[in-house]
Design a protein that fits this description.
Number of strands: 27
Helix content: 25-40%
Structural class: alpha/beta
Length: 697
C-alpha cells in the first residue's frame, strides 16, 4: 500500500532518496576491486552517514511529530505513516550493512591476519597487558551512574558506547537497579596487540565487560547490555534583530540543548536486557521502530573502523591514489607567483586531480606580499590544522586588513568554527559569525593589492570548502582570477553579505537567497524557447542534491517541450525521470566512487553558445531560501572547454555510475560493448589536446 502511494507521486521522497544514496556508498564497500582497508573506509562512511541521517532527517521529522505539526512528504504520505515506512526501510539498510560486515568483511580481515576478537583470543602475555590497560587507563576514566529513587536519570551522550547494567543487592530478590557506564570518546576504540603475523583489535567494550565487576562490588549483576543512542541534531536559530552577541549566545545554548535532545534511535547489542529496554523506551518516548539490534559477532559503531585503517603496519593494504597533476592553466609557470600568472590568465583547478596547494599558496603569498592591502574570505568548514587559518593569522600579523565571514552554523562544526573565529579575532581580524538565520555557504575569497598607482583585485571562487584535508577526498572546482568583471561582483557581494547594501544585478554571479532560483528558472526557460524556435535545447547539470519543486517542475516542462536533459546528481534526487508524459527526455545518473563528488556545474546549450555556471549551490530549497550562496559564470573559452570535458567524462563513465529508474531505484550502469571508462583514472590522464578537442555536449 505505502509503496504504491510513493510510486504514484511525481516526486521522489527526499529521505528515501537519501537512503538510496547510502546504499550506493555501501556498494562501494562491496566492490571486489577494492582493498580491505578501502572497504573499511566506505563502511565507516556508511555508518557516519546513517548516524547523521537520523540526527538530521529523522530528527527533523520528529520535530513535526512531537510538536503536532502537519508534514506531507514528497511521496504524498503524512508524517505518522511516513515515519513507520521510513524506519522500516532504515532497519533493512541497517541489517544489510551489518550482515555484510559479519559475513564478508570479517573473513577477509582474518585472511589478512587481522582479527577483531575477544580478550580470550590473546596469548597469556596479551591478556596480562589487556588487564593492566584496564587497571591503569580504563578503570580510572569510567564513571558508573546509578538510576533509582535517589538518583535522577543521567544524561546519556550522543553516539558513544554505553553500558547498561541491571543489578540488585544480595539481600534483595526483587528490587532491580540500572546503572550506566559511558565510554569516553578519548579512549581508543580498540586495544591493539600483535602475535607474530597476527594483529588483534580487541574492542574496548570487551575488556570492560570482562572486568566490569570491579565497578559493582557486593552486588549481583543480572545483565550487561551495550548500546548507543542517536539524538535529534536538527535545530534552527530564530531570526532576531538583537546584537551579534545574543546570536552567539543563542547558538551556544542550542549546542548545549543538543546534548539533551530527543532520542531518535537506539543501537543495541545482542541479548539486550528486556527490563532495561523497557525503561529506555519509556524514558525516551520511542517504540520498537527506533530500536536496531546487532548480533554478537559484529560491532557497535563502524565509524571506529578508522583506527584499523590507520594502523601503521597496514600501509601496504592502503589503496594507492595517483599524485595530483599540475593544472593545465599553470603549465610552464612553476617559478612564478600566483599574482604573476593571474596577470596573464585565469587558473581553473579540478580537485583532487589538481592539488589545492595553489589556493593555499595564493593566500600565503598575499599574507607576505607588502603590496596586499586586504583579504576577505568566507569560511564554512576548515581543516583540523588549517593552512588557511595560519595564512590569515600571518596576514593580520603583517598588518593586512583581514575580514572573515566565519559560518558558525555549519552543522556539527559549530564549536570548532567558534574556536577558530576567536583565534582570528585575537590576531586582529574582523570576524563576522554568520548572517542571522541564513547560512553562508558560498566559497569566496577576495584579495586587494596595490600595483603602482592602481589598486587591483584578485578573487578565488569555488565549489568546496577552504579545507586542504577534504580537498584530497572530494572532487571540487576552483577558479582563481584577476578579471575585474569577476572581482567587481565579488567585492559587491562581500559588501552585501557583511554590510547593509542592496546589490545591483551582478554580471557574472548568481546569488541566493534573492535571485538564484529565478535565474535558474530563466535559463531553463531559455532552452524551452530555443526548442520552440527550432533550435536544439540541451541542459546538463552536475550537483549533489536536487530537491526544489519549482526547478523540478520547470525541468518537467522543459522535457515535455523537447529539451534533452541529463542530470548528474550524486545524492538526493527528488525528480522522477523517464515517466511518460512527464519526464521522458530526462536522464539521471549518480556517480559514487573513489572520491566524494562535490563539484557543481550548470550547463545550458544556448544554441551552441554554452552558458556554464559553477559554485557552491545545489538545487535545494535551503540553497535558494536559507543560505547565502553563489554561482559564478565561466567565461574564458578554454576554461569553458575544461568544464565541458568534466561533464563529458561524467557522462561517459561506465565504472562508477548508477542510473535512476522511474520508480526511484538505482541500477549500476551497464558497460555493454563500450570500452571501460573510469573517470577517476581518466582525469589523471587529461591533457591540453584532449580538452581542446572536447565537443559541446
Amino acid at each position: 500500500m505505502n509503496s504504491n502511494i510513493i510510486n504514484q507521486s511525481n516526486l521522489i521522497s527526499r529521505d528515501l532518496s537519501w537512503l538510496n544514496f547510502n546504499y550506493r556508498v555501501l556498494d562501494q564497500a562491496k566492490d571486489k576491486r577494492r582493498s580491505i582497508l578501502d572497504k573499511l573506509k566506505f563502511l565507516s562512511i556508511v555508518a557516519s552517514n546513517f548516524d547523521e541521517f537520523f540526527e538530521i532527517r529523522v530528527g527533523s521529522l520528529y520535530n513535526y511529530i512531537d510538536n503536532n505539526k502537519k508534514r506531507i512528504d514528497y511521496s504524498g504520505m503524512r508524517e505518522g505513516p511516513f515515519r513507520g515506512y521510513l524506519l522500516d526501510e532504515c532497519f533493512k539498510f541497517f541489517n544489510d550493512y551489518n550482515s555484510y560486515f559479519k559475513d564478508e568483511i570479517i573473513p577477509i580481515l582474518n585472511k589478512k591476519n587481522i582479527f577483531i576478537g575477544d580478550v580470550e583470543d590473546l596469548d597469556e602475555e596479551g591478556q596480562k597487558r589487556a588487564k593492566k590497560y584496564f587497571k591503569k587507563t580504563i578503570f580510572p576514566m569510567l564513571t558508573p551512574m546509578v538510576y533509582d529513587n535517589l538518583h535522577s536519570f543521567p544524561i546519556l551522550m550522543n553516539k558513544v558506547i554505553i553500558f547498561g547494567v541491571v543489578s540488585k543487592t544480595k539481600d534483595s530478590s526483587k528490587k532491580k537497579k540500572i546503572s550506566f557506564i559511558q565510554v569516553p570518546v578519548n579512549i581508543p576504540r580498540f586495544f591493539e596487540y600483535k602475535i607474530e603475523d597476527d594483529v588483534f583489535f580487541i574492542p574496548i567494550e570487551k575488556i570492560i565487560t570482562k572486568y566490569i565487576n570491579k565497578f559493582f562490588r557486593s552486588v549481583i549483576i543480572e545483565s550487561i547490555s551495550l548500546f548507543r543512542i542517536i539524538r535529534n541534531g536538527d535545530f534552527t536559530l530564530e531570526e532576531s534583530e538583537d546584537i551579534e552577541t545574543n546570536f552567539l549566545e543563542e547558538l551556544k545554548q542550542k549546542l548545549k540543548d543538543r546534548k539533551f535532545s530527543r532520542v531518535v534511535r537506539i543501537e543495541t547489542s545482542n541479548n539486550f536486557d528486556s527490563f532495561l529496554l523497557k525503561s529506555l523506551k519509556e524514558r525516551f518516548r520511542i517504540d520498537d521502530s527506533n530500536i536496531m539490534g546487532i548480533s554478537s559477532d559484529t560491532l557497535l559503531d563502524f565509524t571506529s573502523l578508522n583506527q584499523i585503517i590507520d594502523y601503521n603496519e597496514f600501509s601496504e593494504l592502503l589503496p594507492e591514489y595517483p599524485s595530483p597533476i599540475k593544472s593545465i592553466d599553470m603549465e610552464g609557470d612553476e617559478d612564478k607567483n600566483i599574482f604573476e600568472i593571474l596577470s596573464d590568465r585565469d587558473i581553473f583547478l579540478h580537485h583532487p586531480y589538481n592539488s589545492f596547494d595553489p589556493v593555499i599558496k595564493f593566500l600565503n603569498e598575499a599574507a607576505d606580499d607588502p603590496n596586499v592591502l586586504s583579504i576577505k574570505i568566507t569560511l564554512y568548514r576548515t581543516a583540523k590544522n588549517s593552512g588557511v587559518i595560519d595564512a590569515l593569522l600571518k596576514a593580520a600579523e603583517n598588518g593586512k586588513h583581514v575580514s572573515v565571514l566565519f559560518e558558525v552554523k555549519a552543522r556539527f562544526d559549530e564549536e570548532n568554527n567558534l574556536r577558530n573565529g576567536y583565534k582570528l579575532e585575537k590576531a586582529g581580524c574582523y570576524v563576522i559569525y554568520g548572517i542571522g538565520s541564513l547560512k553562508t555557504h558560498t566559497k569566496l575569497l577576495l584579495i586587494v593589492r596595490r600595483e603602482g598607482k592602481k589598486v587591483k583585485n584578485y578573487a578565488h571562487m569555488g565549489t568546496g570548502n577552504y579545507n586542504e584535508t577534504t580537498s584530497r577526498l572530494y572532487t571540487d572546482l576552483s577558479l582563481i582570477t584577476s578579471n575585474q568583471k569577476y572581482t567587481k561582483d565579488a567585492l559587491e557581494f562581500f559588501n552585501v553579505i557583511t554590510g547593509h547594501s542592496v546589490p545591483d544585478d551582478y554580471e557574472n554571479l548568481i546569488t541566493a537567497p534573492i535571485y538564484m532560483r529565478e535565474k535558474i528558472l530563466k535559463l531553463i526557460q531559455g532552452e524551452i524557447d530555443n526548442v520552440h524556435s527550432g533550435s536544439e535545447g540541451k541542459i546538463c547539470i552536475k550537483i549533489n542534491s536536487l530537491q526544489d519543486k519549482e526547478v523540478i517542475n520547470k525541468l518537467y516542462e522543459a522535457s515535455n517541450s523537447g529539451v534533452k536533459i541529463c542530470l548528474i546528481v550524486r545524492g538526493i534526487c527528488c525528480l522522477r525521470p523517464g515517466r511518460k508524459g512527464l519526464s521522458e527526455n530526462i536522464k539521471v545518473i549518480s556517480i559514487v566512487g573513489d572520491y566524494l563528488e562535490h563539484s557543481r556545474l550548470y550547463y545550458f546549450h544556448n544554441s551552441a553558445d554554452p552558458i556554464i555556471y559553477s559554485g557552491s549551490a545545489d538545487v535545494m530549497i535551503r540553497s535558494f531560501k536559507r543560505r547565502i550562496e553563489s554561482l559564478f559564470k565561466i567565461n574564458e573559452d578554454f576554461i569553458k572547454k575544461e568544464a565541458i570535458t568534466i561533464l563529458n567524462y561524467n557522462l561517459r563513465d561506465n565504472c562508477n555510475s548508477y542510473i535512476l529508474n522511474e520508480d526511484g531505484s538505482y541500477i549500476k550502469k551497464d558497460k555493454g560493448k563500450d570500452k571501460k571508462f573510469n573517470l577517476f583514472k581518466e582525469f589523471y590522464l587529461l591533457d591540453r589536446k584532449k580538452i581542446e578537442n572536447s565537443i559541446i555536449l
